[in-house]
Write a structure and sequence with these properties.
Uracil-DNA Glycosylase, subunit E; 6 strands; 4-stranded parallel beta sheet; alpha/beta; single chain
């Protein structure tokens, strides 16, 4: 069975169903345990990791800020998303991530996407408390990634994770966020994101 590898491919519910069937694969099992534990905290919707990515074999973790509505298949904000944090989601930020990953030269099987705040609670607003709680869950995730060589923090709020990451002996690279807002207001900064991400290669 083929799996589309193109921007916004998870607009298709058939593609979502095929992706969900991949969660049983060996590189995903402990990460599924991790997301299940987060859901038990009942802080909001927690998307699954994308099984098309590296899973526990990841060498570079891309740490975004907070899930958005297109990661949520429970429709907390009135829209039904894929249920995955994925570069294939049907939104402009995910499309930019897909294209920037390609432009920077990353192999999909080496990378993993996640968020500093793992829960989507129906609003893009971020409180200091939820940011602190999210950073507190990173140790557990890093424990599941034995091949991890570097973490890329994507967006200003992801910078909060720097201390935790560096305490684990991993380099932390900070980049701008590939959002439509940045594209419109800071096009030079936005277009430089692939170059910022490529800074992780010296650690691989």
């Amino acid at each position: 069975m083929s799996h589309p590898n193109e921007p916004r491919s998870l607009r298709s519910m058939d593609a979502v169903a095929r992706r969900r069937a991949m969660l049983d694969l060996s590189h995903m099992s402990t990460l599924c345990d991790f997301t299940a534990e987060l859901r038990e905290e009942d802080r909001g919707a927690v998307p699954d990791f994308d099984p098309m990515d590296a899973g526990v074999r990841a060498k570079v973790l891309f740490l975004m800020e907070k899930p958005g509505p297109m990661t949520d298949d429970t429709a907390l904000a009135g829209r039904t998303g894929s249920g995955f944090i994925s570069r294939d989601n049907d939104d402009p930020t995910a499309e930019a991530i897909f294209r920037f990953m390609t432009e920077a030269g990353f192999r999909r099987e080496d990378t993993l996407l996640w968020n500093t705040i793992p829960w989507w609670n129906g609003t893009r607003a971020i409180t200091p408390g939820e940011l602190e709680e999210g950073v507190g869950r990173l140790d557990h995730l890093i424990d599941y990634l034995p091949n991890l060589k570097a973490v890329v923090g994507v967006g200003a709020r992801a910078k909060k994770a720097r201390k935790k990451v560096e305490e684990r002996g991993l380099p932390f690279i900070l980049s701008a966020h590939p959002s439509p807002i940045n594209r419109a207001s800071r096009p030079t900064v936005w277009s430089a994101i692939p170059h910022q991400w490529a800074g992780a290669f010296k650690y691989l």
